[in-house]
């Protein structure tokens, strides 16, 4: 059904690059000054890597939803989804959920016990900026960044006072609420203060009108979520900044809540705190994170209680190295990070289990010429019991064409990646393996990015990226050995990604299109025992070969209509690829309008999800709900 997606992908590539031909014929060139990179700090040293930034308008459209919803809509990342309000994890470039690093203000918030993040527990209310970094960035980010990284960032408010409050009511008796307060004011002539306070609350009763769809059961579930986010910034005129960040979140999921004997409850609670101090080019950060997991089946009054504490400190210094009066200096960031884990888990052979991890890094960025930017990054990690490999990387960006109306940039990177085994993999009773080796791999990618201004009266951006990621010692809970965790030997993930973005404004009218396609071929290369010989060369389970997404909108003044498409090819459910879940395509519609008066705004939005009522199955082989509706009303006041 979805084999034609490859044809669509190639068409997107060649059609977008064909638009460059008229501009390519121009002979004049414009020298561009070096650009100071702002935003999430590590991005400055990610030359050659593909980075996609989700704009604030897109985040505002899904303000009551979670990060998995927006990534599914705007990126070709494949998601392993258990159902509405249930576990949702990413398959980044054909890798597993354990191969995606999730960074909150530079701190990896993956649960150290599981080594992953449940995206259904990360609401859009928890951050201000979202960037997606594709491919390995272990030399910059550290462990887990094998397939890619999700970068969440908090930003200081520039508005003296802003408040918004709203609620979204959905089908199946589901609802979400959110309140945001932002403030900023000077304390004296030398210091200024700003901050943000956000509260969110949601409940998904999933009260479906029918228990089945096409003879497949709809799994009854209930999800309750609440949280608070507090960001505070204190800035001085002489380059000092002190910031404090707190994110408290609580998520409770109950499967088959009406079945007293068979019901299952999983409650995940996270306390994330961080303090940062920066003076000029010196930064010091300390953080404490507590992850709590309560699990019970049947009788929910006495759940298994797991608590993991993470203490992290990081110190870094930025400076420049001069290479001569006619050559741009090299930007350098060097420092170290120390992390201590302490975990009490009922299933561990040793409780509490503790572990120390230390990382030393050296990041560089050099622009030897106007057209060229080079990054060379080095990292060495140290972990209790074993040492991760030395992790270097090199990245290059070169402006092939730099015109007033057209730019074409070649990007490429080559780097090593690694993943430190999770605490579960090392310390779980009987099934864990204290001698398990860290995963290591080499990632290669190359791509082209272009920007074409005044294309069809607007701005067109497109990119094509090809990657090859070989990962050794991939860990796997081996069914042939009673699910004891072992190193799977070697997996190869390769493929390509195409993305296209177009925006145009004519008077009061705005139109736009964002589209993406990914081909991911991910398979085991070598057998590790007799059990796996028949699965060598087969696609990994729940990793679709083809994924695609598209968002098209038209806006007139304060009214906006958006159409979304999400599609994935079949997903294999067995390692020998003998069984699979069919591919599917989903269409969503969003319409919103804003009523403005004085300094007040009222935003009314309506959504229709799965417009065509498409039938498809989740990971548990349960039916996903069909067409549903949501209506939200958001009131805001801005003092400016």
Defining traits:
single chain; mainly beta; 22-stranded antiparallel beta barrel; five-stranded mixed beta sheet; disordered N terminus
Describe this structure as you would to a colleague.
The protein has about 650 residues and is mainly beta. It is built from six helices and 35 strands. It has a 22-stranded antiparallel β-barrel. Strands 1-6-7-4-5 form a five-stranded mixed sheet. Strand 17 (about 305-320) and strand 18 form a beta hairpin. The protein is globular.
Structure summary:
This protein is mainly beta. Helices cover 7% and strands 56% of the residues. The strands form 6 sheets. The chain has a 22-stranded antiparallel beta barrel. It has a 5-stranded mixed β-sheet with strand order 1-6-7-4-5.
**Strand residues, percent:** over 45%
Helix content: under 10%
Radius of gyration: 25 Å
Give the structural class.
Answer: mainly beta
Overall pLDDT score: 89
Number of E strands: 35
The best one-word shape is globular
């Amino acid at each position: 059904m979805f084999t034609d997606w490859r044809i669509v992908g190639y068409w997107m590539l060649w059609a977008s690059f064909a638009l460059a031909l008229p501009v390519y014929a121009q002979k004049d060139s414009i020298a561009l000054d070096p650009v100071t990179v702002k935003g999430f700090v590590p991005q400055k040293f990610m030359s050659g890597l593909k980075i996609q930034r989700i704009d604030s308008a897109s985040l505002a459209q899904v303000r009551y939803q979670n990060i998995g919803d927006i990534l599914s809509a705007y990126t070709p990342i494949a998601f392993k989804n258990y159902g509405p309000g249930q576990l949702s994890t990413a398959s980044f470039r054909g890798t597993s959920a354990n191969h995606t690093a999730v960074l909150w203000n530079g701190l990896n918030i993956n649960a150290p016990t599981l080594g992953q993040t449940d995206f259904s527990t990360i609401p859009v209310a928890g951050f201000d900026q979202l960037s997606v970094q594709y491919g390995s960035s272990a030399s910059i980010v550290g462990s887990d960044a094998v397939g890619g990284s999700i970068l969440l960032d908090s930003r200081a408010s520039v508005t003296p006072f802003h408040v918004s409050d709203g609620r979204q009511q959905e089908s199946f008796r589901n609802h979400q609420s959110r309140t945001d307060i932002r403030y900023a004011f000077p304390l004296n002539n030398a210091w200024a203060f700003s901050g943000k306070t956000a509260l969110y609350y949601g409940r998904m009763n999933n009260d479906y009108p029918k228990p089945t769809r096409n003879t497949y059961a709809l799994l009854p579930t209930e999800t309750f979520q609440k949280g608070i986010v507090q960001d505070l910034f204190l800035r001085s005129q002489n380059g000092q900044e002190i910031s404090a960040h707190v994110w408290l979140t609580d998520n409770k999921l109950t499967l088959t809540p009406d079945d007293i004997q068979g019901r299952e409850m999983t409650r995940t609670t996270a306390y994330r705190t961080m303090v940062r101090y920066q003076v000029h080019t010196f930064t010091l950060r300390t953080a404490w994170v507590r992850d709590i997991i309560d699990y019970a089946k049947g009788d929910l009054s006495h759940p298994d209680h797991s608590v993991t504490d993470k203490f992290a400190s990081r110190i870094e210094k930025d400076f420049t190295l001069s290479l001569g009066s006619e050559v741009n200096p090299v930007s350098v960031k060097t420092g170290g990070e120390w992390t201590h884990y302490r975990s009490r888990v009922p299933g561990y052979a040793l409780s509490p289990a503790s572990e120390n991890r230390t990382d030393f890094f050296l990041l560089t960025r050099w622009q030897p010429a106007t057209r060229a930017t080079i990054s060379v990054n080095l990292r060495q990690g140290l972990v209790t019991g074993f040492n991760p490999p030395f992790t270097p990387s090199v990245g290059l960006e070169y402006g092939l064409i730099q015109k007033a109306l057209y730019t074409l940039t070649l990007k490429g990177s080559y780097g090593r990646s690694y993943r430190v085994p999770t605490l579960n993999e090392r310390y779980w009773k009987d099934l864990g393996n204290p001698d398990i080796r860290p995963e290591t791999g080499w990632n290669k990618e190359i791509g082209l990015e272009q920007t074409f201004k005044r294309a069809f009266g607007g701005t067109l951006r497109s990119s094509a990226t090809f990657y090859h990621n070989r990962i050794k010692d991939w860990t796997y809970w081996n069914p042939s050995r009673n699910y004891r965790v072992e190193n799977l030997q070697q997996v190869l993930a390769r493929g390509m990604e195409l993305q296209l973005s177009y925006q145009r404004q004519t008077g009061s009218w705005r139109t736009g299109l964002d589209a993406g396609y990914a081909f991911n071929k991910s398979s085991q290369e070598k057998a590790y025992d007799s059990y796996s010989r028949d699965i060598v060369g087969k696609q990994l389970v729940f990793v679709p070969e083809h994924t695609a997404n598209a968002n098209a909108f038209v806006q007139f003044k304060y009214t906006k209509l958006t159409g979304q498409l999400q599609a994935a090819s079949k997903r294999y459910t067995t390692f020998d690829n003998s069984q699979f879940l069919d591919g599917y395509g989903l269409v969503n519609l969003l319409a919103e309008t804003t009523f403005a008066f004085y300094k007040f705004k009222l935003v009314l939005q309506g959504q229709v999800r799965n417009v065509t009522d498409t039938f498809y199955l989740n990971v548990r082989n349960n039916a996903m709900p069909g067409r549903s509706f949501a209506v939200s009303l958001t009131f805001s006041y801005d003092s400016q």
